[in-house]
Amino acid sequence: MRPFVSYLALVAGAYAQSSGYTDANTGITFQGYEDTTGFKYGMAVPVTPATDFIGQMVVPSNGSGYGGISLTGEMVGSLLIVAWPNSGSVVASLRETSGYTSPEAYTNASISLNPIANGTFVNSTHMSYTFVCAGCITGDSLSFSASATDLVVGWAMSAKSVTNPSSSSGATFVYHEAGYGDFGLTLTDAESSSYDTWASMATLSNTTSSNTTTCSSTSTNTTATVSNSTYDYIIAGAGPAGIIVAERLAETGKSVLLLERGAASTYATGGRSVVDWNSTVTQYDVPAMDYYLTTASDTSEYCTDVANMAGCILGGGTMVNAMMFVRPQERDFDDKWPTGWKWSDVSSSADRLYERNPGTTLSSLDGKRYDQQAFTTLQTFFSKAMGFSQVDAIQSPNAKTAVYSYPPWDAQDGLRAGPVKTYLPLANAVSNFKLKLNTKVFRAIRSNSTVTGVEVESSTGARQIINLNTGGSVILAGGSMSTPRILYNSGIGPTDQITTVQNGCVSVTLPAEDEWINLPVGQNLRDHPIFTLTFNATSINDTLVSTDFTSPSQTNIDLFAQGSGPLAQSGQRFNFWTSLNSTNGTRFFQGTCSSTADGSVRIKLYLTHGLTSTGVLGIDSNGATEFTTDPWMNTDADKAAVISMIDTIFAAARNSSIIIPSDASQTGASIVNANSYTQGDHFVGTTIIGETNDGTSVVDTNTKVWGMDNLFVVDASIHPDLPTGNTQAIVMVVAEHAAAKIVALASGGLNSTGSVTSGVAPFANNTTPAVGGDDDDDDACE
Ligand SMILES: Cc1cc2nc3c(=O)[nH]c(=O)nc-3n(C[C@H](O)[C@H](O)[C@H](O)COP(=O)(O)OP(=O)(O)OC[C@H]3O[C@@H](n4cnc5c(N)ncnc54)[C@H](O)[C@@H]3O)c2cc1C
Ligand SMILES: *[C@@H]1O[C@H](CO)[C@@H](O)[C@H](O)[C@H]1NC(C)=O
Ligand SMILES: *[C@@H]1O[C@H](CO)[C@@H](O)[C@H](O)[C@H]1NC(C)=O
Ligand SMILES: *[C@@H]1O[C@H](CO)[C@@H](O)[C@H](O)[C@H]1NC(C)=O
Ligand SMILES: *[C@@H]1O[C@H](CO)[C@@H](O)[C@H](O)[C@H]1NC(C)=O
Ligand SMILES: *[C@@H]1O[C@H](CO)[C@@H](O)[C@H](O)[C@H]1NC(C)=O
Ligand SMILES: *[C@@H]1O[C@H](CO)[C@@H](O)[C@H](O)[C@H]1NC(C)=O
Ligand SMILES: *[C@@H]1O[C@H](CO)[C@@H](O)[C@H](O)[C@H]1NC(C)=O
Ligand SMILES: *[C@@H]1O[C@H](CO)[C@@H](O)[C@H](O)[C@H]1NC(C)=O
Ligand SMILES: *[C@@H]1O[C@H](CO)[C@@H](O)[C@H](O)[C@H]1NC(C)=O
Ligand SMILES: *[C@@H]1O[C@H](CO)[C@@H](O)[C@H](O)[C@H]1NC(C)=O
Ligand SMILES: *[C@@H]1O[C@H](CO)[C@@H](O)[C@H](O)[C@H]1NC(C)=O
Ligand SMILES: *[C@@H]1O[C@H](CO)[C@@H](O)[C@H](O)[C@H]1NC(C)=O
For this UniProt entry, which residues form the secretion signal (predicted)? Predict the structure, then answer.
């Protein structure tokens, strides 16, 4: 699910390859590639490549959208060239980004784009941009080297409008929903002795050599009105953590406002991104669509101002995720969580969650499992060649060494489940709860250590202040990629990050500098790296492929209407877990497996609980969060463990005749040393929980921000450790526990050390909200 490209050149031959063509408008012969979407890119270099090349990007366009090229194949850290039509002419820009956000203008006096007029135009069907990229062959992390032979070029395009399109450096871009990919290009094939003649057609310009800070959005009217409604609790973010905490707080009878920056998601909540074969279910409702969301007609659910993949829609990550629901094992809490958060402390919170939202290893309501060849094949391999035994991952969460299971999914009634389905209707049923969509929380308004309210921005950009009732609290639940921004904007975090906000392009009213609170916000970011291993498997000869899900048969449409069939299943077919013990400690692994074509099967191997790599999340001058240090595979002990685990699986496969590594030359070391991983999208740790305010944590064991009286964080940001499986289940358990802590704190259930006394169980009844309401599944929340 990684946007705009994948792992570094696994095998050059695996990419679509370029071929030669001569452009009629300029007469230049390019080595290029045309995708099935119509996106086309070509390149020409001198006989002895040095620093410059000629590029040509042709993008199908109705006058909107953009096309982009990455000179390394990667989106992050690469030199990007983006071009877009604006009122009939072409605007282009060099860009670079440290995260999966709209890339910022790249400024370097020795690198420039110089258009070739005859190949640069907008017509009724396309945009064509032909240019000399001067100084662009850098041979470092930005771009390929002049002596390279096989290049990997990444491309992306969108049909959606560019914001601020007249500004080369100030325009911003949405997610590349119209397509993206990589292709291979042999540099020697692009060499031509006519290069100098062609390059002389370029108009030299120094468009990118300006040294001024460019802001992508010009400040509009940022005067805020004041809402005349006030609340006991204001919660920022309606992802799983925010919804669960809001619903539990609403049960106490206090007034609760849940603010979500995104729009409605499931059909029941008012979402209308319906699939084209059923007009009453959205792409989020259909379990099988979870593997194809990035290709769906509507991709507005992804955040565009954060360092990496996150859902900005009602339900957050639970609407864009792949539905894996791995109940945490005891160790996930016992190794690193503080006092009051060990498994023995949180298990009753887990029970409250599972009562409403249990997860299942059998989602099709007819009790059948569909498309099982991958399961059967891998069951044979893992039981016979690896000695693993079968468990049910929902029933046996603590069995995490040498086991396999049918995949556990967050599904109910043949649909995607999660708190939008299992908690939100309960909250909507009580009058003291209010959900406001399309409302982004900017900052907590502080009177020194007390929060008095929040400043929000609507989707039209209008600002508003919403105040708390006396004694009320603000609870942050924007997710690991977003909650840090709210804190930075509130004067809480490392001084350099708050200074970036102060000097940045977004108009933010910060507290006076002597009220800034220096806490390690952003510092302990963790994620699961994923290694994709592919195997040949002759026993797989009748597997369902992507079109079976994106253009389903009538039989499967009819089965789905009954909550059954392959469309009621998520994309995974087989899971395994195991551990590795060495002098470097214990590390766990998860395998998530499926087959996407006959004759082959894929294992996505995750390094999970016990990994030691961490990264750092910061904020840029446009207010987007970014990775200042990547969180993956930056310790030698993590690398050694992954190499060992891959080699163990490969060796077992080679000795079996059941599955065979499809590339015989691959080893654990070749994969790990090529950094061939994708991210897990399981980010945690940007505001971790801790027992003392000693500079290593951001919130206390009641989830309250150190130094603040009434500001809390309850989402994945507070997790001081990564679990053994995907994160949503543990995020929900932790949210249930955080709600209990916050309620107990408010009702004075504290012991002398200020933490909640054990035995405080604020939610007497697990299934029924305290005030009115019912928990019928058909309780739509419009
Ligand atoms: C592509 C993808 C695939 C994944 N696959 C799986 C999987 O298969 N299984 C699994 O267990 N986990 C998976 N995860 C991870 C899981 O979804 C997350 O761990 C979980 O959703 C985190 O919950 P959260 O409440 O901390 O934050 P989020 O889910 O990120 O929710 C935060 C919410 O707050 C909103 N928000 C953010 N900032 C603001 C603001 N300033 N004001 C108002 N609202 C705001 C967002 O729009 C969002 O709705 C996946 C994640 C992604 C991105
Ligand atoms: C552009 O094309 C026109 C028409 O074909 C031609 O006359 C002109 O010389 C070309 N310009 C350049 C710089 O090649
Ligand atoms: C527009 O330009 C593109 C690229 O040169 C070309 O393929 C296409 O045919 C042109 N369309 C029209 C209507 O001329
Ligand atoms: C571009 O900038 C460089 C260095 O500042 C300068 O030498 C060159 O003449 C400029 N080119 C144009 C066309 O202005
Ligand atoms: C360019 O920016 C750098 C860093 O902000 C600054 O130190 C330098 O003085 C600037 N140069 C010019 C010519 O403005
Ligand atoms: C700015 O916005 C505020 C609040 O929406 C409004 O009261 C004010 O009139 C606006 N000012 C201008 C100059 O538009
Ligand atoms: C509060 O604001 C709403 C609209 O925002 C308005 O309809 C209502 O009359 C206001 N109430 C008071 C008491 O001002
Ligand atoms: C702000 O709060 C802190 C901690 O409570 C306190 O030490 C400090 O004096 C306060 N500052 C002001 C200006 O009130
Ligand atoms: C397809 O594979 C199955 C085993 O998965 C095997 O029993 C069956 O004979 C195969 N069918 C064909 C046509 O090869
Ligand atoms: C669409 O799916 C729903 C299940 O959510 C089902 O009730 C309905 O009958 C389906 N409609 C069609 C036309 O299949
Ligand atoms: C690693 O050690 C843990 C106990 O710390 C144990 O549960 C697990 O089975 C061990 N793993 C292996 C593969 O032996
Ligand atoms: C432990 O980690 C070190 C790197 O820190 C590595 O060189 C060594 O091979 C690892 N040992 C084992 C048994 O994996
Ligand atoms: C796996 O299958 C592919 C496609 O059929 C083939 O090219 C490749 O050589 C096979 N690999 C092995 C190790 O047999």
Answer: 1-16
- CA–centroid distance, residue 56 to ligand 12 (Å): 47
The pLDDT assigned to 105 comes to 87
pLDDT per residue over 409-430, tens digit each? 999 999 999 999 999 999 999 9
The structure tokens listed for 713 are 């964080």
For the stretch 553-574, pLDDT in tens is 999 999 999 999 999 999 999 9
Residue 357's nearest CA partner among 316, 315, 318, 412 is: 412
CB 669 less than 6 A from any atom of ligand 12: no
Query: Quick one: which ligand is closest to 447's CA?
Result: 8
Read off the pLDDT band of 749 (50, 70, 90): low
- Atom of ligand 12 at shortest range from CA of 644: 14
Structural tokens at position 613: 């790599």
Question: How far apart, in whole angstroms, are the C-alpha atoms of residue 212 and residue 375?
Answer: 57
What is the average per-residue pLDDT within 214-231? 77
Helix, strand and coil content of the chain, in percent to the nearest 5, comes to 20, 30, 50
Query: What is 708-734 written as a DSSP string?
Result: -SSEEE-SGGG-SS--SS-SHHHHHHH
Ligand 12 lined by 582 (C-beta under 6 Å): yes
Among 149-158, 211-220, 256-265, name the one with the lowest average pLDDT. Answer: 211-220
487: left (phi over 0), alpha (psi -120 to 50) or beta: alpha
In the chain, the percentage of residues whose pLDDT exceeds 70 is 92
Does residue 628 contact residue 520 with C-beta atoms inside 8 Å?
no
Nearest 5°: CA angle at 220, between 215 and 225? Answer: 135
Q: How many CB atoms lie within 10 A of CB 733?
A: 25
Judged by DSSP in three states, 557 sits in: helix
Q: Structure pTM?
A: 0.79
| C-alpha to C-alpha distance for 348 and 352, rounded to whole angstroms | 6
Cβ(448) – ligand 8 distance below 6 Å: yes
What local confidence, expressed as pLDDT, does residue 59 receive? 96
Q: Does the pLDDT value for residue 778 go beyond 50?
A: no
- Return the SS3 of 737: helix
Residue nearest to atom 1 of ligand 13 (CA): 662
Structure confidence at residue 231 (pLDDT): 98
Shortest-distance atom of ligand 11 to CA 578: 13
Mutate to test the pocket of ligand 4, among 111, 206, 211 (most ligand atoms within 8 A of CB): 206
> Looking at the DSSP assignment, which residues form a beta bridge with residue 191?
45
- Ligand 9: nearest atom to the Cα of 542: 1
- Cα–Cα distance measured from residue 281 to residue 274, given in angstroms and rounded to the nearest whole number: 5
Catalytic residue among 176, 682, 719, 737: 682
Cα 206 to middle of ligand 4, angstroms? 6
Tracing tokens 């994708």 back to the chain, one arrives at 678
Q: Could you count the other beta carbons within 10 Å of the beta carbon of residue 204?
A: 10
Q: Which of 459, 456, 433, 432 is nearest to 443 (CA)?
A: 456
> Which ligand 2 atom is the nearest neighbour of the CA of 201?
13
Please report which confidence band the pLDDT of residue 220 belongs to, taking 50, 70 and 90 as the band edges: low
Nearest ligand 13 atom to alpha carbon 662: 11
Rounded Cα distance between 312 and 263, Å, is 8
Check pocket membership of 201 for ligand 2, CB cut-off 6 A: yes
Cβ–ligand 8 contact at 450 (below 6 Å): no
The closest of 239, 247, 356 to 740, measured between CA atoms, is 247
Domains of the chain listed by start with CATH number? 16-209 (2.60.40.1210), 357-411+525-679 (3.30.410.10)
Q: Which two tokens stand for residue 252?
A: 């106490």
The reply to whether ligand 8 has any atom less than 6 angstroms from the CB of 657 is: no
State the Cα–Cα distance between residues 228 and 80, nearest whole angstrom: 46
Any ligand 9 atom below 6 A from CB of 373: yes
Calculate what percentage of the chain has a pLDDT beyond 90: 77
DSSP for 561-597?
A: HTT-SGGGS-S--EEEEEEEEETTEEEEEEEEEEEEE
